[in-house]
Amino acid sequence: MSFAQWPPEAGAKVVGNTIELPTTLKPVAIPLDQLLNQGATIITAQHDTNGPTVTLKKGQHYIICMVSGAGSAKDQNIATSRCYAMN
What superkingdom heads the lineage (predicted)? Predict the structure, then answer.
């Protein structure tokens, strides 16, 4: 059984592939917990190699947040988030 590669292989010669286009990400100066307290809703969540990544909907805006947890292997003793508005 073979599985399709995701994301699809890059390159103009790949049948049915689209070109990569620039995407504007606007920094959001509000941490994930405050966005949730302000009524944002999590619509997707996954665990990446660096920690959880969540997509939120707040009003008409979609926001992606990457979460870094606290850990003894790092200098970081509290969890942090970096969030970007996608529209």
Answer: Bacteria
Query: Per residue in 1-31, pLDDT tens?
Result: 455 566 666 666 777 777 778 899 999 999 9
Q: Which pTM was predicted?
A: 0.76
Q: Are 32 and 41 in contact (CB under 8 A)?
A: no
Helix H, strand E, coil C: the string for the chain is CCCCCCCCCCCCCCCCCCCCCCCCCEEECCCHHHHHHCCCEEEEEEEECCEEEEEEEECCEEEEEEEECCCCCCCCCCCEEEEEECC
